[in-house]
Design brief:
Blueprint lengths: L7 E7 L6 H18 L2 E8 L8 H11 L3 E4 L7 H11 L2 E4 L4
Parallel strand pairs: 1-2, 1-3, 3-4
């Protein structure tokens, strides 16, 4: 059941070259820990594959709009370039947050 008392958060990260399943799981844990610590309810976590031809940005914007998400958490500043950040903020009206490194 969804928690409607806390603002929703989506996690987004770009896969690093040859990332292992445990490395991806660690990023997902960072996001869920961050959400709990900062008072968010985690909605979804999207991973853009290293060799993915189409950007997940359109999907991210669509999910944020559909679910009324207030923020997107990223794992590193390199997950979104400046144009992507501006587009996400403009079209979905979300804040971009950086999860602290472990």
């Amino acid at each position: 059941m969804a928690d409607h008392t806390r603002p929703l958060l989506i996690g987004y990260f770009r896969e690093i070259f040859f990332a292992t399943a445990p490395e991806k799981a660690a990023i997902r844990r960072r996001f869920t820990d961050f959400a709990a610590r900062e008072g968010f309810a985690m909605d979804s976590i999207l991973c853009e594959d290293f060799d993915q031809a189409r950007s997940e940005l359109d999907r991210l914007i669509g999910l944020a709009e559909l679910h009324g998400v207030s923020a997107v958490v990223i794992s590193t500043p390199d997950d979104l370039d400046q144009d992507q950040r501006r587009r996400l903020e403009r079209e979905a009206g979300v804040h971009i947050l950086l999860a602290p490194s472990p």
